[in-house]
Amino acid sequence: ASHLGISNSPAREAMMALAAIGLLEPVRNRGFRVVELSEHDRYEVYEMRVLIEVEAARQAAARDIGHRQIEKIVQLAHRSIEALPSTREDPALPYLNADHDFHMAVVDSIGNSRWSKTISNLRDESRVNGAYRHLEDNQGLHHSAQEHIDIAKAVQERDPEKAAVLMLKHLEYARPKNYPPAS
Q1: What is the pLDDT along the chain (183 residues), one digit of tens a residue?
Q2: Taking Cα atoms as reference points, which of 128, 125, 74, 126 lies closest to residue 101?
Q3: Cα–Cα dist 139/79, whole Å
Q4: CATH class given for the domain over 39-174
Q5: What is the fold, at CATH topology level, of the domain defined by 1-35?
Q6: Per-residue pLDDT tens over the stretch 105-123
Q7: Which of 97, 76, 75, 95 minimizes the C-alpha distance to 85?
Q8: Residues facing residue 86 across a β-bridge
Q9: Would the N or C end of the chain have less CB density within 10 A of its end CB?
Q10: What is the mean pLDDT of the chain?
Q11: What is the rounded distance in angstroms from the CA atom of residue 21 to the CA atom of residue 24?
Q12: Domain extents for the chain?
């Protein structure tokens, strides 16, 4: 609260809201802590994302989602390239925000608010638990951003199977190493 320059009440309400969606847990007489995901929890998140996001990419390419929605997906894919850190010392946060926006645009294009809410929550769980840190250690962010371009192009070309295959391949970064790939 003091860091944000606000009173304790709104800060506590925000923490309670984050606890309500499972990102934080209250700790008696201490405050809150981030809910840690086990490897199995991370695999469950990965499986759910595959189930929804691969189908969303397929549907975005197959359905008549409209020119504006397709252009938004393409623009956000390019924005993820623009948001890449220039050096290892640069923060990855702008890229992670662009990545989130791209994924949400693909899912949102289907018009299923429950899919969108579920994916947003799953992505938040992953992000809070540092699931994307390993991408920063190598060329992972650059590779991920290029995959956004490829997925967007498949949607733009109205190629549902290619969009689905590319999204499945793209989500591989979220799979814990000791678990099998989704099929």
Answers
A1: 787 788 888 888 887 887 787 777 888 888 887 778 788 988 999 999 999 999 999 999 999 999 999 999 999 999 999 999 888 778 788 998 999 999 999 999 999 999 999 999 899 887 776 655 555 555 788 999 999 999 999 999 999 999 999 999 999 988 888 888 886
A2: 74
A3: 17
A4: mainly alpha
A5: Arc Repressor Mutant, subunit A (1.10.10)
A6: 999 999 999 999 999 989 9
A7: 95
A8: none
A9: C
A10: 88
A11: 8
A12: 1-35, 39-174
From 125, 111, 158, 175, select the one nearest 25 (Cα to Cα).
125
Q: Which helix (H) or strand (E) holds 70?
A: helix 67-82
Q: What is the residue-wise DSSP string for 83-139?
A: TS-SSTTS-SHHHHHHHHHHHHHHHHTTT-HHHHHHHHHHHHHHHHTTTTHHHHTTT
Residue 32: its H or E element: strand 31-34
Say if CB 174 and CB 47 are below 8 A apart.
no
1-35 and 39-174 share one CATH topology? Answer: no
> pTM, whole model, 2 decimals?
0.82
Contacts of 156 (CB under 8 A, 6+ apart): 70, 73, 74
Tell me how far CA of residue 26 lies from CA of 33, 142, 166, in angstroms: 7, 37, 39
Give the tokens for residue 98: 């662009």
